[in-house]
User: What shape does this take?
Amino acid sequence: MQIANFRSVHVRRDSDLSHLHRLARTVPSVPRVMPLRSVDGDGRDPPNRGGEFGPDQEEWLRQWQARLKQKLPSGPRIFAFLVAIAVVIIAAWTSYYAVPSDSVAVVQRFGKYLKVVPPGLHFKLPLGIDETTIVPVKRQLKQEFGFATPGATDPYQSPHPRDAKRETEMVTGDLNAALVEWVVQYRIPDPVKFLFEVREPSETLRYVSESVMREVVGDRTVDEVITIGRQEIESEALIRMQALSTKYIMGISIDQVQLKNINPPEPVQESFNEVNQAQQEKEKLINEARRDYNKVIPLAEGEKDQRIREADGYRLKRINEAEGDVARFNALLAEYSKAPEVTRRRIYVETMQEVMPDIRSKFIVDEKSRGILPLLNLGSEKDEKP
Assistant: This one.
């Protein structure tokens, strides 16, 4: 009896499920269908089977897959659809660009120059129709010769490893070898000329700089290149590089040429250092000699000038005294000619006035006396102090 009841319930349940499936086919879209549960004869749920899909759920999935295939294109149409989506994405991605604050963008349409765009965010025709080249017009660029700065982003800033040593080897005017390292600092004021007038302008600038530096160094001796002629070499190289860049219409302005390390080749480095030490010692001795010269010679010249001035003063003094004596004698002679006796007595009296005060002992002798020794007290004169 219980078995018959179970079969009747099971049949009834199956008929209900088929009815529900027919209703689901008539519904155009069902967002979510909960899985149907079968019940036992006593009304309880059957035990869990580990989340496995039942036959009804698999049927429902197959139906949705069939509907999706009907709506989407099939065969070559699906490939064209995917290609169209990819093209739209690439076009959107390549239709805008940003220009840094220290640069401008040169726009080309189908390879032909179109315009220069200022800094900021801009749009262009996508898919390679418009091409942009960023040119740093407000930043000072540089090129290094003979050495390289780590982390440089410009491929033309530093020399190629195989050319680093070659481009520094130069021959001076006196046929000596020298290793010259230098830096060229420049700007790009005209980006259009920089891009379109010369092919590979940065590389061309390297060739121009190397050529000019070899020419300038070849006009000087090795001593001038290494020691006293550095500033002159920098100035002359700057003028010549700017002239060539203007001649070639490169759109480049050379700001500065700066020499770095200048050394002789390695095989003669020690000998050259010895020569430099000898030259430094020579300069040291010359400076010491000049110092002693500056101490002694000016002093001797001062004493010489002083002696010359003293001699000139003495000469003028004697001349003036002699001229005064002559004038006085001539005046006296004129007076003597007028009254000889009076003049002779006056001269005698004036002379005695000058001489007598300097005489300590005075003796007045009578003309009739024959000897004066008894009158002189010679002992008392010895005891007197001068």
User: Anything to note?
Assistant: The chain has three domains: 70-135, 141-264, 267-355. Residues 300 and 306 are 10 Å apart (CA to CA). Residues 1-17, 23-52 have pLDDT under 50 and may be disordered.
